Amino acid sequence: MRITALWLAGLSATALADDIPVVGQQATVSIALPSGAAESGSLLFELDGYDIGAISQVADGRVEIPLESLALDPGQHHLLVLVVHDNGDIDTVAEHTLDVFAREGVRASSTRWNVLMSNDYRFAESPEELYEGQSRSHQNGALQFAAETDRSTWVAGSTLDLLFDSDTSASPDGERWQMPAIDLRVARRFSDAYLALAFGDRQVEDGNLISSGFNRRGLRLEAHALQDRITAETFTLHSDPVTSLDAEVPPFD
To answer: Is 60 exceeded by the pLDDT of residue 134?
Structure first.
């Protein structure tokens, strides 16, 4: 068994943002402004880098943002409150994260599946000696399933790809069923951290020069802190790509 740990760390002076939960059906969100912010200059509001000052209303030390006109996707959206001084200087006076939920208690949830099946039958064989010992019928199929649920504190997901081929001549291990992809994961969010446990095929972006060489099936434990400024991961992996249904968990090859 191979056990590998990667530790990535970085530092940043940016202050952590406050999380503000928002339900998708909510029409308007009202946020308190820092004391004296409105008197120190002109206020600007940016959401995910876009200026939303034209639709924001400031009154009694609060800013009201209409969510219906923004149609925000479920997930986190970064809100900056800026002040423009008379001399042209711009300062950030507040940072918030709008945590948008699709419905109460559920940030996002989705299920996808796809089934493909085929059956071939040879009615005639000529010359017959070329087909001696071969079955007249051939069946194959594929099942793809993926499900994800994000309940803010707990996150879970699964991905499964199954292939069936009655002709085992092309199978690497002579089996009719193959499982080219599987990924089962559960994660727990904390105030400033994220902990995840997963089993399956590890997929890393090709641009990740540190981890792209470890795209193998196995067990993974990930930890993230301070908005991914500190990241650690420990995992086991198979030395070669695995597609069989009965691959050892964890791998001991």
So the answer is: yes
Asked if the peptide bond before residue 127 counts as cis, ω within 30 degrees of 0, the response is yes
- Give mean pLDDT, residues 147-152: 84
- Among candidates 252, 193, 194, 189, which has minimal Cα distance to 219? 252
Cis peptide before 250 (omega within 30 of 0): yes
Apex 206 CA angle, 205 and 207, nearest 5 = 90
Name the pairing type of β-strands 90-101 and 18-23: parallel
191-202: pLDDT as tens digits: 788 899 998 876
Cβ-proximal residues to 151 (8 Å cutoff; 6+ apart), any chain: 105, 106, 107
DSSP class of residue 123 equals S
Please report, rounded to a whole number, the percentage of residues in the chain having pLDDT higher than 90. 10
Encoding tokens for residue 46? 């940016």
CA distances 33 to 25, 40, 48, Å, are: 24, 12, 18
C-alpha to C-alpha distance for 40 and 89, rounded to whole angstroms: 11
CA distance 42 to 88: 10
Position 153 confidence tier, pLDDT thresholds 50, 70, 90? confident
Strand order from edge to edge, sheet including 230-236 = 3-9, 230-236, 217-225, 193-201, 177-189, 154-165, 137-150, 108-121
Amino acid at 5: A
